[in-house]
Write a structure and sequence with these properties.
Helices cover 80% and strands 0% of the residues. It has 70 residues and is mainly α. Helix 1 (6-31) crosses helix 3 (40-65). The chain is elongated, with a radius of gyration of 16 Å.
């Protein structure tokens, strides 16, 4: 298991969830149909999963990026 700062994981999950919530909110406004809001729990679950993957990817990539100089 990859140990990392819980703040990174939290921000990754929040970012993934809010991205999906924003997309569903806008599409509900465009189509004037609240049906899209009914699938919100699925999108929240996927936001948590892929937000976690993003946080782990960041943890793996940051050491390599720290060697790059401006």
């Amino acid at each position: 298991f990859i140990f990392f700062n819980s703040k990174t994981l939290f921000l990754g999950i929040i970012g993934g969830v809010m991205h999906n919530v924003g997309q569903l909110f806008v599409i509900s406004l465009i189509y004037s149909n609240p049906f899209f809001l009914k699938i919100m729990p699925v999108y929240i679950a996927f936001g948590c999963i892929f937000g976690s993957i993003t946080a782990v990817s960041l943890k793996l990539i940051m050491p390599a990026l720290s060697h790059i100089k401006n």
